[in-house]
Amino acid sequence: GIPSMPAPVLGARRPTRQLQVGKVGVGSRSPISVQSMTTTLTSDVNATLQQIAELTAAGCDIVRVACPSQDDADALPAIAAKSPIPVIADIHFQPRYVFAAIEAGCAAVRVNPGNIKKFDDRVKDIARAAKDHGTPIRIGVNAGSLDARLLKKYGKATPEALVESALWEASLFAEHDFHDLKISVKHNDPVVMVRAYELLADACDYPLHLGVTEAGPAFQGTVKSAVAFGALLRQGIGDTVRVSLSAPPVEEVKVADQILQSLNLRPRKLDIVSCPSCGRAQVDVYKLAAEVSAGLEGMEVPLRVAVMGCVVNGPGEAREADLGVASGNGKGQIFVKGEVVRTVPESKIVETLIEEALRLADAFDTS
Ligand code: SF4
């Protein structure tokens, strides 16, 4: 087999209470989980289950479904029963759907205290129903729907306002001896969001669900989420994450998965190390990297593949990787585990790398 060194880690997780969201543990004793949210009509059970299957295949651990109508609430039992991953019902405005979701066997329920009118009066009943069914609750505070009282007090959705809203709601549950809570305090500005989670982390020991809300289209949202999550995860803050993109939810899962892999918080799978190219390049590095990446997509083994444009850093990086190519003079030197195993013409680089990658992947399977 292939020897592997333990991956360096960022630092200790912030100790939290531990929750069970269906089969997925959430809290500092569990790996950080990835969440996303379906975009289908929840009432369309088949379409929703189809999308959940796609999300699961992409690496999603927990899925959230919206529940804005009675038809959606009616679909929850079938979805919760058939989904391969735990389903969280996302409830705004209507406390009665909270009870429906708990009865339906959803693995958790998300409530937004800013949006559920007269919510505070219902906490006792919700806490009892949730306790009876062992259903955790996420208190999901969102800058765009902050409690009117706090908006007035703070003037806008400041970190302090978001945290006060969340802790107030948590205290109502705590009064009824209900502590199976996780909390989010989302804002679209990563700086405000990071500060809010830092304050929240200091003020409680509930597990935290990280998210930059309304983060934007794929490129901007990816960058915002990556920097914000990185700043928090470096401090051990964050137990479950959701990347929000104005893009299909599978993309959210891929981004979240890559963020966690990059920080060694999830086992690394395929890692392509490719150079940015420069005036020394003797091959079209972008094309080569894209073709190798496409050819190896979906490979589940922790393989580091170096694609380098010339002989300056090429042989060094290619040697450090499991597999690599250093190009020059219309040829590619193919490295496996630090040794040049072949030199092939440029036109054969991609197929040779893929062939060698498959051979190495087989070695993982049998080791
Ligand atoms: Fe430039 Fe070569 Fe470095 Fe690529 S490996 S960036 S081509 S010097």
Automatic annotation (TrEMBL):
| The organism's place on the tree of life at top rank | Bacteria
- State how the cofactor is bound: Binds 1 [4Fe-4S] cluster.
The catalytic activity, as recorded, is: (2E)-4-hydroxy-3-methylbut-2-enyl diphosphate + oxidized [flavodoxin] + H2O + 2 H(+) = 2-C-methyl-D-erythritol 2,4-cyclic diphosphate + reduced [flavodoxin]
Keywords attached to this entry: 4Fe-4S, Iron, Iron-sulfur, Isoprene biosynthesis, Metal-binding, Oxidoreductase
Identify the metabolic or biological route this protein is part of. Isoprenoid biosynthesis; isopentenyl diphosphate biosynthesis via DXP pathway; isopentenyl diphosphate from 1-deoxy-D-xylulose 5-phosphate: step 5/6
Ranges for domain IspG C-terminal come to 272-356
Membership in a protein family: Belongs to the IspG family.
Q: What does this protein do?
A: Converts 2C-methyl-D-erythritol 2,4-cyclodiphosphate (ME-2,4cPP) into 1-hydroxy-2-methyl-2-(E)-butenyl 4-diphosphate.
Q: What is this protein called?
A: 4-hydroxy-3-methylbut-2-en-1-yl diphosphate synthase (flavodoxin)
Q: Which organism is it from?
A: Streptomyces flavochromogenes
